[in-house]
Amino acid sequence: MEFPTEIIGDKGYIIITGDLDSEVAGEALRTAFNHMYEQGKRTIVLDLSGAQIINSYGIGKVLSCYQQLKAQRGVLMVKPLDGFIKETFELLMLDKLLPVDK
Amino acid sequence: MIPVQPSILLADSDERRRETLSSFCKKKGWGCRAVSDITQFQSYLQNESFDLVIADADMPGLSPMILIGQASRKRPSQSLLVVSDSSKKEYDLRMFRGASSDVIAEPVDLNWLESCVEQAITSRRQEEREQLAYSFVVSEKTEMIFSCKELGQAQAIALPIVGRLLAAKRLSETDALKIRVAVQEALLNAFEHGNLELDSRWKEESVGDTDRFTATRNERLQDPKYADRKVAITSWFDGEAIQIVVKDEGKGFSQDTRRDPGVHELSPYGRGLTLMRNAVDQVVFSGGGSEVMLTKRINKPRKW
Fold first, then answer.
1. ipTM of the assembly?
2. Is A101 inside any structural domain?
3. Which of A21, A36, B26, B73 could in theory staple to A41 by disulfide, Cβ–Cβ 3.0 to 4.6 A?
4. In whole angstroms, what is the distance from residue A86 CA to residue B259 CA?
5. CB-based contact, A22 to chain B, within 8 Å
């Protein structure tokens, strides 16, 4: 599994094209994140429109990315959320942590 | 009699090929929507269901993986054909070769296209028969048993009973997703913390180029003492609620010592209990924590 990435200006975008609910998906996120990070991007945006669910495993990976960026004064953002993903983020108050990239 | 005219969405930026395929579909009496740009294509995918989606692999703006996700989301059985010229590398097309998707080379073999449409119709008829039959079912019980060794290789576990309830419209899509998350969390707990006796705190301890949790997980999946332990998932519904019991062969845990991190804690683990409790109507632990029962109320059967 691979998640496409894109650089627009000073932001790196990771397009999540499947559910973040398995080790394979988690590793794909980590690989895409490392790719953006190693290219010097410190504002990274997750586009979760291609995912229907995220479980504790996926949330852990997202938070690992968040912490790594935060340690370098970077920002992890998300594209506008909807559906069950949005509900999950709100339940765990991750919507307060990760700003929205409009 | 349920209409069996296949519905096809054709997205192709090549005008000549689009017209050829569109004409062929119409001659066969198939319903066909033909679009030439990605915006219209994605709009149809989001708002309508089709028996078969035919897409041009070289369409400008097309992201293949997003396409697959969108095409299968509305109806998992929705078939997808990607048209590609022979110069495209097999490696780039590998992601399209799957259970409900495939690649068709240019020039398109119309006989093979016809067989793909027939297959899509057969699948749709089967789906409708199952939905009709299932609306009369008053109860069902299923049991699945996995060893840790097998679970370690599985990427995802789906409960057929949930798929059937969803297809029979006795569960909403959102509720089906919630049950999926709840079962995943219960299964992860049973597999990793129950049977493999892994501690989430080990994720924060580095070992070589990985962490203690991952290293220990991999070791124990090779050790029969842990790898042969079983996880049983029993699910049933009685017309009013679906109940799912996940049971492992581990030592159990004390709920008093187990709590999910709070919102201000950024630990990369935990939160499974919170997700479970939010997803279903009731979560009950027993057997010292080695067994959990999830209960979700469902809709009354729809009248045919």
1. 0.90
2. no
3. A36
4. 23
5. yes
